[in-house]
């Protein structure tokens, strides 16, 4: 009996003692450590996600700091003014002053512009003569619009094109209305000799649009005035042989004379 009682007591005490062992207590506390680990992992994942969301916003600023700003350099202009020098061309019979200007293209072509009078005068003209082939020619209308814009004018209207015979050969012509503060009737013209690399274009204006005879005599009055290349001299020598008898000195003077309109 004592042994049996002792055995029963021993088993109950043993069960209580087993429940209080450190290993048992460790198993009871394990869930709290798991929660801490899980919460830590969730926090790390949240911070990583936030960093990924903010990264695109940071990149432009960081990239701007890392990459130095580039310096934009404008290309050199195709045309540069030619220093003042004796004019290569003249307008025969012009009683009014003729302004001249010249410019050089990067490929060696040269353009000389003769300007007779001013926009709105009884007789106003501009002709640009080119030696060489600096640029690809556009349509007649586009070329005239560019020339007008460079002169500070606008093309209000350009009529149907036609051909006009001159001492240089057949050229393109078309009635033209130039506009600034007012409007003026003109004749636009363009000529090109590809074999000699020589061309010219411009307009002749008056109180009314000049007719074909006046335009032909104006073109007839374009002459060489200074030293020029042998090829250019050959062009004008050939042209002078083809000059029309209808454009004598009086006819040329009438086509280029400057007569200011009567003031009110």
CATH architectural designation of the largest domain: 3-Layer(aba) Sandwich
CA-CA gap between termini: 154 Å
Helical coverage, percent range: 25-40%
Rg calc: 46 Å
Level-1 CATH class name of the largest domain: Alpha Beta
Give me the CATH fold name of the largest domain.
Protein Transport Mog1p, Chain A
From the spread of the alpha carbons, the general shape counts as elongated
Total count of strands: 11
Number of domains: 2
Segments where pLDDT lies below 50 for 5+ residues? 1-9, 252-264
Q: Tell me about the largest β-sheet.
A: 9 strands, antiparallel
Structure description:
The strands form two sheets. Strands 1, 3, 4, 5, 6, 7, 8, 9 and 10 form a nine-stranded antiparallel beta sheet that branches. The protein has a two-stranded antiparallel ribbon with strand order 2-11. It is of the alpha+beta class. The chain has helices at 2-19, 22-66, 140-150, 212-220, 230-241, 249-256, and strands at residues 79-81, 89-91, 98-105, 110-116, 123-131, 154-158, 162-166, 169-179, 183-193, 198-206, 222-224. Helix content is 39%, strand content 28%. It folds into two domains: 2-66; 79-256, 3-Layer(aba) Sandwich (Protein Transport Mog1p, Chain A).
